[in-house]
Amino acid sequence: MRYLIYYSSKGGVGKSTFAKISHLVLADNNQKKVAGDDTDPQQHYADWMSHHKNLVSSEEDAEFFIYDTQGAHTAANAELLTAACDADAVILIPVKPSNDDLKEAQRIANRLTQLNIMDKAIFFLNGCVANSNYSNYRAELGKLGKVARKQINNRKAFAEIPTAREINDVSALLLEVLI
Ligand SMILES: Nc1ncnc2c1ncn2[C@@H]1O[C@H](COP(=O)(O)OP(=O)(O)OP(=O)(O)O)[C@@H](O)[C@H]1O
Ligand SMILES: [Mg+2]
């Protein structure tokens, strides 16, 4: 089983949004068996799964297991990341193009390096403006670890039922990071 962990100690960067759409893309568009869990007390992804039971497999059957995490440095997140050391896991870290996000990315990289799992981590830019150049952010993130080529633009709304554009965005990101 492959684990897909959306992690960032910064809040509001897109973890829950991407957990939900990744589940949809893998289970619905790609007919994979997908299970998931949530270390966030807000339970956004867990709630989504409870409303999409037809797309949720049992943990035993699942080919992919998605985790949404709380946007803070918590004991539950530390436990999950420690367990990810020995698993086939990809840790996806959404980063918005801002200096505060870059500072937090540095802290995240330090933490993951201490846990010896930085090699499983991939940063990706979310909330970008179309046709803008983010090479400066890419360069800074690149000093810390891997950065996905796919970047996600800011859309008016990432709806509960995502549009074809959002599905395409997440499909391209997953294709890049899962192969
Ligand atoms: N690319 C985007 N374009 C427009 N809105 C976005 C985008 N990505 C995320 N959002 C919106 O930003 C808000 C925060 O996203 P989300 O809840 O997924 O973040 P989070 O990292 O899970 O936050 P928290 O740490 O509080 O759990 C949501 O309203 C979501 O719809
Ligand atoms: Mg969330």
Describe how the helices and strands are arranged.
Elements: E1 2-6, H1 15-29, E2 34-38, H2 44-51, E3 64-68, H3 75-84, E4 89-95, H4 99-114, E5 121-128, H5 135-144, E6 146-147, E7 152-153, H6 164-178
Parallel strand pairs: 1-3, 1-4, 2-3, 4-5, 5-6, 5-7
Helix pairs in contact: 1-2, 1-6, 4-5
The chain binds adenosine-5'-triphosphate and magnesium ion (MG).
The site of magnesium ion (MG) has 7 residues, from α1.
Radius of gyration (CA) equals: 15 Å
CATH fold topology: Rossmann fold
Which CATH architecture is right?
3-Layer(aba) Sandwich
Mean pLDDT: 95
In percent terms, what proportion of residues is strand? 15-25%
User: How many beta strands in the DSSP annotation?
Assistant: 7
Major sheet size, sense and barrel closure: 7 strands, parallel
Note down, in words, how this protein is organized:
With 179 residues, this protein is of the alpha/beta class. It has one domain (2-178): P-loop containing nucleotide triphosphate hydrolases (Rossmann fold, 3-Layer(aba) Sandwich). Helix content is 41%, strand content 19%. It contains 6 helices and 7 strands. It has helices at 15-29, 44-51, 75-84, 99-114, 135-144, 164-178, and strands at 2-6, 34-38, 64-68, 89-95, 121-128, 146-147, 152-153. Strands 1, 2, 3, 4, 5, 6 and 7 form a 7-stranded parallel beta sheet that branches. Helix 1 runs parallel beside helix 2 (44-51) and helix 4 (99-114) packs parallel to helix 5. The two termini are 14 Å apart. 40% of the residues are buried. Adenosine-5'-triphosphate is lined by residues 11-17, 40, 42, 71, 126-127, 152, 154-155, 158.
